[in-house]
Automatic annotation (TrEMBL):
Protein name in the entry: Unannotated protein
NCBIfam families with a match to the protein in the record: lytR_cpsA_psr
Keyword Lipid biosynthesis: no
Listed Pfam families: LytR_cpsA_psr
Cell envelope-related transcriptional attenuator domain boundaries: 155-306
Amino acid sequence: MAERDGSGRKILGRSSSENPPVVSSTTGLPARPVLGRSSTGAAPSGTGFASEGLGNGRTGGTAVAQRHSRKRRPRKRTIFLCFIALVILVPVGCFAFGWSQFSKIPTVNVSAVLSPRGSRSGTNYLIVGTDSRAGIESNDPNSGAFLSGEVSGSRTDTIMVLHVDGSTTRLTSIPRDLWVTDPATGQKGRINSTFASGPSNLISAVEAIGIPVDQYLEINFVSFGRLVDAIGGITIDFPYPAVDDQSGLSIANSGPNHLNGAEALAYVRSRYYTEMVNGKWRVDGTADIGRTERQRVFLTALMNEVAGERNPFQLFAIPGSLGAGMKRGSTFSYTDAIGLAWALKDATPEMVVLPVTPRRTSGGADVLDLQPDARAAISGLAA
């Protein structure tokens, strides 16, 4: 039943069951309703105003937190996915870049003459430095290290065998004047002359003295210098000032000296190494033995520089900087190169000296013969 006012008229819009409006005691007007709450003062249930965040109840705060959480989740997911992509793509990119550079190195097919593995656990790398002058400019300020003497064709100036067996590394330098039988001709001659019939013939000559060969690497004078320059040079500690007019070596001060490519080559090639000792020049009387030791010092310094390179792109760019002056055996793969670099990280190879006896042939050539006890030294390279 509808309510009536004081004059007896009906009050429209409200039934007798509804509560009368609350009137302000100060203004005499009905009080304004509070959004999100009924006239009885109870908060509405369900999805009323409070669920939209307009009320002051717990439901509204939870909804806001949920929306913020939904906004944060995609951002965290994006960051996580980007991190995973970097972790995967950067190494893959470095590997691919390195492989592209490595694939530029020409190959030499020597697989037919490489030694069978048998029961050997170690791996021998035959490293050959040739005296090819192709690509060297005569106006190079360090050309003396390359262009001294008249040379036609290409011969081996340096022959080294690097033996790697787990954490054990050994290095031996085979004297180029070693008197051997040429596998191609059957004639006696210096071992460096066997290279004239090709790398396979040189490998066979090395194997004939009892040293197995598993992998082959060759580098000429030009690429040798580029390799050293690509890593920013190497540091060699000289006990005394040293010179060699034949190779172009000129070291004015004792102590650590930082060498560029041409200077490093002059140091490695030096056969008339002369030092200033107590104010007097003294020629190194150890001949090829001293040269072998200097080659070991150089190779150790080179490996330490490469191992210390922290820029992966700079490291993987090294093979590409060598040009066609470096060659690798057809069986020497990119993974082999990575494995070798890892094995040589912070390594200091043990020097293996081949005992030799100098003599002069009937034709007047100064050569070296292996001594009988050289077998003991060679056995360490055949394990």
